[in-house]
Amino acid sequence: MKDMNDIHGNLIGGAWLPGDDCRPNVNPSDTRDIVGHYAWAGGAAVDQAVDAARAAFPAWSAAGPQVRHDLLDAVGTELLARKDEIGRLLAREEGKTLPEAVGETARAGQIFRFFAGEALRLSGDAQQSVRPGIEVCVTREPVGVVALITPWNFPVAIPAWKTAPALACGNCVVLKPAELTPGCAHVIAQLLHKHGCPPGVFNLVMGSGAAAGEALVSHPGIDAVSFTGSAATGARIAAACGTLRRKVQLEMGGKNPMVVLDDADLDTAVQACLNGAFFSTGQRCTASSRLIVQKGIHDAFVESLCRGMRALRVGDALDAASQIGPVVDQRQLDSNLSYVDLARTEAAEVVGGERLDPGKPGFYQAPALFLGAANKARTSREEIFGPCASVIRVEDFDEALATANDTEFGLSAGICTGSLKHASEFRRRAEAGMVMVNLPTAGVDYHVPFGGRKASSLGPREQGRYAAEFYTAVKTAYSQA
Ligand SMILES: NC(=O)C1=CN([C@@H]2O[C@H](COP(=O)(O)OP(=O)(O)OC[C@H]3O[C@@H](n4cnc5c(N)ncnc54)[C@H](OP(=O)(O)O)[C@@H]3O)[C@@H](O)[C@H]2O)C=CC1
Ligand SMILES: O=C(O)CCC(=O)C(=O)O
């Protein structure tokens, strides 16, 4: 056990507590670099955190919007002011390149500031009753104590886009970040604490999904659960929340199509696919993992894409020359490499995808393209979550659209085309929560709804003013003078 002073503790009821044990936070670019030691808690800490949140709820839910605005605004402003330093921490713990990590931190700051404004704008409806002499008033109330469970791939933005609307709407929060990336969530906890968040309103419990996560989801003091992560864990959480009759919001995987039509601008299409498939090491639920390419442009596109892919520099996230950082850990790397092996049996040709050794202990992999892939192949159907994309050749727009929609997922779908007719039809008929025209499938704004259809999402949308659908309960009041 480390000295207590060296451990980043959990924040429970306004106090920093050490947890049952601690774990090193390891840099995936260089595993000799330990980012810090973070508390590792189980069910007892979850009980304490939920109790603290319940105790804080009456006062926080009654606190006016000005208090909530000021807290969220202060946190957002400091995230923006310290984006380089916090971005560096993010790059060290997750492996995203420094520009991506600084950009994500700035996005988290903007999210807090956006929801500071939303705290002031939360509104209801006054309507006339169909019965004379009666007034109808629809208001939004906080849901109660919400459990937030977040993944490792956006370690500051996702905790921000769940925490900020939860607090803006007057809820109390227990956040459990991914065990691989507790550092950025800890920074959010530090900032909320520093800027006067009342004890118990926001609680941080770091620990494993199997222990802390399960305990949180099934805790009787929780009113709602918002989760981002794998489809398998999402299904478990949905089942538990169904049995316990609690509100649930799930953001899970994707197998996002990017259609490239013959009339696309070749350079725009190649850049959108390089970005969508490989940036952030492909570790985005919005990544373009199926590149669906019409026959006329296919060969020129593949040639240009392969050239662009081979030119991408894979390296240490902190190295200014790196364009693609490492994979997050050994388990994810092994999984990616096993999909590359599978693609050798499924696709006509595999380009790249090998493990790289840049002379330091880290989890480096070359980006991979699976050429001549079939949409029914496992590598075209299962979320890989690494720098790998299938290239699927199609005859025409109709086949491209049908192939794009032939997936169990429905998060993001893109098209590169010069045809307004095809772009409009794709926007209308794509079975996805988000559609991108001549843009990568990944990389979204912070002030508009985020989420998908089919197996990608369950429950109300996240982000923008739509976030209030999940973080509030609607009340309809009838009154007669
Ligand atoms: N859609 C997305 O944005 C993401 C998708 N994924 C997909 O998931 C795969 C595996 O990644 P992984 O990190 O294991 O994803 P998980 O779904 O296991 O983890 C996401 C979050 O859920 C927690 N968790 C895990 N099990 C439970 C449980 N039984 N009850 C409550 N919470 C739980 C995790 O904790 P802990 O990490 O501490 O175990 C983490 O905080 C990836 O390869 C990728 O395909 C992963 C991350 C994000
Ligand atoms: O593409 C983005 O900007 C967001 C992606 C995301 O939220 C995720 O991968 O979990």
TrEMBL record:
Task: Specify the protein name.
Answer: Aldehyde dehydrogenase family protein
One Pfam family cited in the UniProt record for this chain = Aldedh
Active-site residue list: E251
Provide the Aldehyde dehydrogenase domain boundaries: 23-476
User: Which PROSITE patterns does the UniProt entry name for this protein?
Assistant: ALDEHYDE_DEHYDR_CYS, ALDEHYDE_DEHYDR_GLU
Q: Which domain of life is it from?
A: Bacteria
Q: Species name for this entry? A: Paracoccus angustae
Family the UniProt entry places it in: Belongs to the aldehyde dehydrogenase family.
Q: Which UniProt keywords apply?
A: Oxidoreductase
Cross-referenced InterPro entries, in alphabetical order? Ald_DH/histidinol_DH, Ald_DH_C, Ald_DH_CS_CYS, Ald_DH_CS_GLU, Ald_DH_N, Aldehyde_DH_dom
